[in-house]
Design brief:
alpha/beta, disordered C terminus
Length: about 120
């Protein structure tokens, strides 16, 4: 399994992906590789997942950036609501905060990240 993070290493989406990947690896008994594919405000990594085979082996760690890109980046080669869809919530931080969402779509899968800007121990 591969999780694409379309943002830089060490940020909230990356930390959430790595923690989720560790938990999923333990649950499924197979490796979850986290890859950072940065650039164009998240478009490059998101596009890679949207064009991946529809086998469920490639996931995307999303944030609200992808939602904003729907109107701010008209030349992207995917449509968020058409190509990616949420499938499961993931909570890694305080219960009162909105967690993340694991998703899958027609051609790819995604993980929605709404993690707060806090360390995981908080």
């Amino acid at each position: 399994m591969k999780v694409i993070v379309p943002f830089g290493a060490g940020g909230p989406a990356d930390v959430t992906a790595r923690q989720s990947g560790s938990i999923l690896q333990e649950s499924f008994g197979q490796p979850f590789v986290i890859e950072n594919r940065t650039g164009a405000g998240g478009v490059i990594g998101t596009q890679e997942v949207a064009k991946s085979p529809p086998d469920g082996y490639t996931l995307l760690m999303m944030s609200n950036t992808q939602t904003a890109n729907e109107s701010l980046v008209p030349q992207r080669k995917y449509e968020l609501m058409r190509d990616l869809a949420p499938i499961a919530p993931v909570q890694l931080f305080r219960p009162r905060h909105r967690g993340s969402c694991l998703g899958a779509g027609k051609n790819a899968a995604g993980i929605q990240s709404h993690s707060p800007n806090r360390s995981p121990g908080n």
